[in-house]
Write a structure and sequence with these properties.
By secondary structure, this protein is of the alpha+beta class. The chain has one domain. The protein is 41% helix and 19% strand. The strands form two sheets. Strands 3-5-4 form a three-stranded mixed beta sheet, with helices on one face. It has a two-stranded antiparallel sheet with strand order 1-2. Strand 1 (2-3) and strand 2 form a beta hairpin. Helix 1 crosses helix 2. The longest helix has 20 residues, at 45-64.
Length: 97
C-alpha cells in the first residue's frame, strides 16, 4: 500500500499485543521505520478495516510531521471510514456523491 510514496506492507496476525496498552491487545500497529502495518485478524472485518484506516493515518501523521494527537487520529479514522462505506453503498449511483 502506498502511503505518501512509502510502500507499506500490510500483515494480518491474530497475536498482536503491546504491553503499553491496558489490556495488551491491539487492533493494529504501524511501524513507520519498517514501512509496515500490522492488523489484528482476531477481530471482525469492520474492526480490521477501521484499524487499517487508523494505522494509515498514523503513517501519514508521522511521515508528514503533522503531530496529530491520538484523539484527532481517532476522529479522522471514524469519519474517513464512514465516508468510504457510504461511497461503497452508493456505487450504483455511478460516481455521484
Amino acid at each position: 500500500m502506498d502511503v505518501l510514496g512509502y510502500k507499506y506492507s500490510i500483515r494480518y496476525s491474530d497475536e498482536l499485543k503491546d504491553d503499553d496498552v491496558p489490556d495488551g491487545i491491539l487492533f493494529g500497529k504501524c511501524e513507520t521505520s519498517k514501512w509496515q502495518i500490522d492488523i489484528n485478524s482476531a477481530y471482525d472485518r469492520i474492526n480490521q478495516e477501521t484499524a487499517l484506516v487508523h494505522e494509515v493515518i498514523e503513517a501519514i501523521n508521522s511521515h508528514a510531521g503533522l503531530e496529530l494527537n491520538h484523539q484527532t487520529i481517532c476522529i479522522l479514522e471514524a469519519t474517513i471510514y464512514n465516508m468510504i462505506k457510504q461511497l461503497e453503498s452508493n456505487e450504483d449511483t455511478q460516481g455521484q456523491c
